[in-house]
Amino acid sequence: MIKLQIIGNLGADCIQKEINGKTVINFNVAHSEKYKDAQGNPKERTTWVNCAYWTDRTAVAQYLTKGRTVYAEGSPEAEAYTNKDGQPAATLRMRVQTVQLLGGNTDSAASPAYNQGNVSNAGSGTAPVVKTQPAMQNAPVEDDLPF
What is the pTM of this model? Predict the structure, then answer.
């Protein structure tokens, strides 16, 4: 299994759709990193990840708004395509399994809306975590991997 984890800001409000009787919440997360090029000039690179969160716990959608900082993890998918200029390009997608709201736009009065189903508050308490799959019981410890 390959796992992708990202912390970043939402580029737009999420879009909730129903497809074949199942609910999907689509959102885009931008992660920016600053670095210096070979000549020592400061640069910034932004990576966008298109996220699809298939869930029946749709209460989280109202909080997935533009500018919100989130942590998301799930399975990555890469897709190659030809852009409008005829050049090859690629996009990164993630099938989300866990979403956690981080900082910014925090409305403490709204947090109880998450207290349904398989929802928990991690760590210090104000950022709810929503999981769509139960944790693997007998998953190998990272140090036990053969590489």
Answer: 0.66
